[in-house]
Structures are given as C-alpha cells and as structure tokens.
Amino acid sequence: MRAALLEQAGTALVIYDDLEVNQPRTGEVQVEVKYCGLCHSDLGFMTGKSPLLGPQVPGHEAAGVINAVGEGVTHLAVGDPVVLTPAPPCGLCYYCQRQQYSLCDNAIGILSGTLADGSTGLSRRGERVYRGCGIGALAEYVTLPATGAVKIDTDIPLDVACVIGCALQTGVGAVLNTANMEAGATCVVLGLGGIGMATVQGARIAGAELIIASDPVAERRQQAARFGATHVVDPAAGDLPGLIMEVTAGIGVDYAFEAAGRAALIEQGLQLTRKGGTTVIVGSPPLEEDLHIPNVVLFQALEKKLCGCLLGSCNSLYEIPRLLRLWRQGLLDIESMITHRRPLAEVNEGFADLAQGRGIRTVIEIQAPPAP
After folding, report:
1. Which regions in the chain score pLDDT beneath 70?
2. Which CATH class is domain 3-165+333-365?
3. Which residue in 99, 275, 315, 368 has the most C-beta neighbors within 10 A?
4. Which of the listed CATH numbers 3.30.230.20, 3.40.50.150, 3.40.50.720, 3.20.20.70 matches domain 171-310?
C-alpha cells in the first residue's frame, strides 16, 4: 500500500507504495483511510520531541470505510463509514472495568506504536514499521481492533469527521470528562492549536461563565473568540494573571487547561487557579521537561489539583457519537477547525504549517475521490 513513512527524526516524510499491512485477525478490522488530520503528537515524532522506536507511519486522527472484517466482528461490515480512535476500549481489562476507558490496555499503542500484543501489523521490505500513536493513518489502509473503528452515519462528511478522532475527543473530553466542569465555572485555556480550540468549545458547551484563551498567534485568538472564548490574551504582550485576577474578583479561575504541551504553562496554570482549583494537562510536553511546583506545602494547603488527561478521558464508543450529536445540533463547530486541506503528496507542507502555527487543523486526503 501507499503510505507516508518517517524513517528517522529530523527528516521529512517519504511516501512509498510498497508498505505491507496485515489482514485483520480475530476481533480486528481493516479500514481504507480517506482522511487524516495532522496533530502535534505526530509532529513530536518528526522533531524528536517524542522517541522514535523505528520507521513509523504517523497519523492517528482519521476516518475511512471498513475494507475487511476479522472473525468474530459482527457490529461492523464492509463499506461502513468509521472514525478511528487511538484508544480502542477492550471492555475487559482492569481499567475498562473501572470505566477508565482511555487507560485501556489497548491504549498502550499511543506510546509504543504497537498493538496490545506487541505486533505492529506493518512492514516494508521485511522491516518492522511502527504505528504512529498506535494507528499509523497516513496510509491507504489500517488494521486495528474492531472497537478502534466507530461507525458513523453515511451522510457525515469523512473529512470533517476525522478531526473528532483526536482533537475533539481530547479537547472537549478534557472539559466534560477529565475536569467534569460545572455550568457557570471559570477557566483559562493555554494554547490554541486544534486541541486548545476544542477545549474552548468544550468549555462553552459545558456552560462556562468565563473562558479566557491565551495564545501568541493573533489569528488563533480571533478564532477562539468565535468558538466561545469570552476573553483572549496575547501572552507575550498582555497581563494574563492580571486579567484573571480582575475578572474573577481576585479569586483565580476554577480550571486551567494546558493545551500547548509545555511544562512552563502547566506551572502557570497552577498559579492561575483559585484555592481548590484544577489544572488539567491536556497537551504533551517533551520527555525532557520536568514540572516544578514551588512551595509544595502551599500547594497542599490551598488544595489545588493537578491531573493528566489522555484522549479526553474518553470512552470513544460513546464519545464519538456524542460529539457528532453535538455537531448536528449546531453546538459543536467542526468545520471551522479545518483550515487547510492537502493531498498526501503535500503532507510535509502540512506539518510545516503545524510547526509554524499556521491555521488550526490540516486534513490530508489519502486517496483521490473516484472520477465521476
């Protein structure tokens, strides 16, 4: 099959047409990928921010149609349109039994680039190829657990639906699931890429009274206001702590969402939250970055909270349909999240846009539509 391959960090992706993908085994399906959004998690492998274990097909925010089903799969059929998820819940492991579906044993692939059994199902000329964030969707086909492909209605455009797979699940989920934000709450969102914008929308959907959005890119701040931010700040020029103290009567925000993947912003979030407030780590900082909490006894005495967030703490089998219902009701704007569309041949240009902060989400078309 044709796929974009990252052979080593710091190099451009190369498109090959000789990758091999396994046929689905028991409990698996094969998906013909139509569209894949580009995420900072993919970019992290390209820049060396995240460790690259070997040649890898990036991409994990995707939608397509079922191409083949393995033995025992009865809820999906060839031709079904689906959205892919990096954390397919097995329903049986320790974490699924405790309704912590995003921590399912299957989600190990997000870090390992493999399936749960350690295999990848991908190779090129006999060499093992890893799956970017457990999927590897910048390719014509993906084989994955059947719960990793969530069926959607046939009238939903796949180029729009693909963004749900990561950005929307993560950002909206961080608000509704990880933080469990209550109506009338106050919050700040630090970083306004795809996940940060989805977080702003999640806060609006939750009924937040104040949504303060911070990013150095003016276009992103303007878009955040359209998505529901009540205040926008340029962190390089504005006084973010002063604004928060002003609009919260000196209390601080209830929630801070770090969505840029920087430890320094996590620390800032801890400072900006009120007593008893919660800071949610939504972005993924580089491995070499550490978190410093000054005066830990004060952190303890003020009962502040810090928590991680993987894929919005979502059960994708529930979350993807819920997000699509919100979209149909006009409560979730997915189309405006997509600022660039490119063919697979321009995937490196798409990642360059991402690295430079141009736009919000670039969607890659894997295969050209059939001729009329």
Report:
1. 368-372
2. alpha beta
3. 315
4. 3.40.50.720
